[in-house]
Amino acid sequence: VQLRGEAALLADRAGLRHWSLSTSHDGGFAMAVACATVQ
Hints:
By secondary structure, this protein is mostly helical. It has helices at residues 5-13, 25-38. Helix 1 packs parallel to helix 2.
């Protein structure tokens, strides 16, 4: 499952281009937010 929408934008800002997660969209969104926040 590739990140889409806002989660994808957050992941892109965190430098996580072309990554994917085998989780739900909610899980991917939470992960993207966490990564963006850490950096």
